[in-house]
């Protein structure tokens, strides 16, 4: 019996010493053959007895701070085209392809400043019928490549169909006929000075190449360069404003020799400035698509050149102002594609065309 008591005393002493050692663990106490206990410090009210290790763990669990919930994964943003305009040039710098179809009606001065097609080098003969107006359709295919988000290059290949109308005459034959052919190919560069989700400021330089036959009404028969400034501003979550300003400068052009004494020569081609503004409002917004009606005002000012007026009389085109209103809408999808449909109408006495319908498909990569 004395031996058993001695063994108990030794075990209890070892347990107490193990609990008082720094870093002592329950495993150390268990090795000593007794339940692990810890001895907290004295309080003001006196001695506090030992606390079993199980009770201490439960107390620690009660005092532990709750683990914060993990934040939800970020929502995947859909890729919606911010630009909604259909006639004003897009300020975005990106990789894209575009297919566009224009149908224009009632174009009374298609040779004005050689902006649409080439003028004549001499007064019309008395045997030539007087052209009254012209309808046209033009299909454009264009592609843009952006190696960086601040710079891109683009090319546009148009194919044109024309349908001229002449004043009825039993003795005079027309000198222009209905048909189709490739028009003047365009190529250029874009450089973004400001590029963000809320604002774009882009400089664009476009060149026109005389690939279309001007005699048949498919081109201008001269080169042109066109510097422009393009701007995009997001006004609110749904509203945006886009604008452009630039000038088409001819390089060369048809030399017209007037039937006068002494003979005077003038260039049919002339500078044409263009500027426009287009607000849009996203009427429908969904995760996979958005629809926005857009209203655009586009204006041109002709600085020089000539045009064929009534009765085939060539006259100056300098100082002519043209204003068009464009009303349409664009639906943009989350895969980067968009479709535009719109109608344009000339508002001033001098017009390029009276009515124009446009449809466009655009895909961003």
The CATH architecture assignment of the largest domain turns out to be Beta Barrel
**Count of domain modules:** 2
Order of helices and strands: HHEEHEEEEEEEEEEEEEEEEEE
Q: What is the rounded distance between the termini?
A: 92 Å
Structural class: mainly beta
- On the 0 to 100 scale, the average pLDDT is 85
Estimate the global geometry from the Cα principal axes: elongated
Give start-end ranges of low-pLDDT stretches.
22-54
Question: Level of helix content?
Answer: under 10%
Q: How many strands in all?
A: 20
Tell me the CATH topology of the largest domain.
Lipocalin
- Cα-atom radius of gyration: 40 Å
What percent strand?
over 45%
What is the CATH class of the largest domain?
Mainly Beta
Instruction: Output the CATH homologous superfamily of the largest domain.
Output: Autotransporter beta-domain
Order of strands side by side in the largest beta sheet? Answer: 3-4-5-7-8-9-10-13-15-18-19-20
Total count of helical runs of at least 4 residues: 3
Q: How would a textbook summarize the main sheet?
A: 12 strands, antiparallel, barrel
């Amino acid at each position: 019996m004395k031996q058993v008591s001695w063994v108990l005393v030794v075990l209890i002493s070892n347990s107490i010493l193990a609990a008082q050692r720094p870093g002592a663990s329950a495993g150390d106490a268990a090795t000593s053959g007794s339940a692990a206990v810890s001895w907290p410090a004295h309080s003001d009210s006196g001695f506090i007895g030992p606390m079993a290790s199980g009770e201490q763990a439960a107390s620690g669990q009660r005092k532990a701070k709750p683990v914060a919930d993990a934040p939800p994964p970020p929502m995947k943003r859909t890729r919606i085209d911010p630009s909604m305009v259909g006639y004003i040039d897009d300020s975005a710098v990106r990789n894209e392809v575009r297919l566009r179809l224009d149908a224009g009606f009632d174009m009374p001065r298609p040779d004005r400043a050689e902006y649409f097609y080439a003028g004549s080098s001499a007064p019309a003969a008395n045997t030539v019928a007087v052209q009254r107006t012209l309808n046209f359709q033009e299909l454009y295919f264009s592609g843009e490549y952006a190696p960086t988000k601040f710079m891109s290059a683009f090319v546009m290949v148009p194919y044109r169909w024309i349908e001229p109308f002449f004043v009825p005459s039993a003795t005079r034959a027309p000198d222009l006929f209905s048909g189709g052919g490739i028009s003047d190919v365009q190529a250029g560069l874009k450089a973004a000075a400001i590029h963000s989700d809320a604002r774009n400021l882009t400089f664009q330089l476009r060149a026109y190449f005389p690939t279309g036959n001007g005699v048949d009404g498919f081109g201008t028969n001269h080169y042109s360069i066109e510097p422009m400034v393009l701007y995009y501003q997001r006004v609110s979550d749904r509203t945006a404003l886009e604008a452009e300003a630039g000038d088409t400068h001819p390089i060369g052009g048809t030399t017209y020799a007037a039937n006068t004494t002494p003979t005077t020569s003038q260039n049919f081609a002339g500078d044409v400035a263009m500027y426009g503004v287009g607000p849009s409002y996203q009427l429908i917004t969904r995760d996979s698509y958005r629809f926005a009606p857009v209203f655009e005002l586009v204006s041109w000012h002709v600085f020089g050149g000539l045009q064929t007026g009534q009765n085939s009389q060539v006259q100056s085109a300098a100082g002519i102002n043209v204003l068009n209103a464009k009303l349409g809408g664009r639906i943009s999808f989350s895969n980067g594609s968009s479709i535009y449909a719109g109608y344009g109408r000339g508002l001033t006495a001098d017009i390029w065309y009276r009515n124009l319908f446009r449809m466009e498909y655009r895909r961003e990569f």
